[in-house]
Design a protein that fits this description.
Blueprint: H1 2-5, E1 8-19, H2 23-32, E2 38-44, E3 46-48, E4 51-53, E5 63-70, H3 73-90, E6 93-102
Antiparallel strand pairs: 1-5, 1-6, 2-5, 3-4
């Protein structure tokens, strides 16, 4: 069992939902803080404090979901510092949770 535990690395999972119009800036920030990779799912829909968001006519905006991991606290701090002004300006969500990354 201890050999299996050596296959894990503690990371912070970061999930960002942001207006599609701010996706490019969000991805630039991920590159600036040297996040090694990310997944983008476009045309997300949901409801938050700014109302319903979806890609249909009459909705507030369409969103993009970005999932990535940060491997250290400095990287995470830099990401939060740079993404927070976008979230304050246009809304969105940034969730950070503890996770384990399987080394391969």
């Amino acid at each position: 069992m201890s050999d299996v535990l050596n296959l894990f690395e503690n990371v912070k999972r970061v999930e960002i939902i942001v207006s599609h119009s701010h996706l490019e800036k969000t991805l630039m920030i991920l590159d600036e803080v040297q996040v090694s990779g990310y997944t983008v799912i476009e045309d997300t829909a949901g409801k938050g404090d700014r109302g319903i968001s979806c890609s249909d006519i009459g909705c507030v905006f369409n969103g993009s979901y970005v999932m990535t991991v940060c491997t250290n606290d400095d990287q995470l701090g830099n990401l939060v510092e740079k993404i927070n002004p976008i979230l304050k300006k246009v809304g969105g969500v940034c969730l950070i949770t503890d996770a384990k990354w399987v080394r391969h």
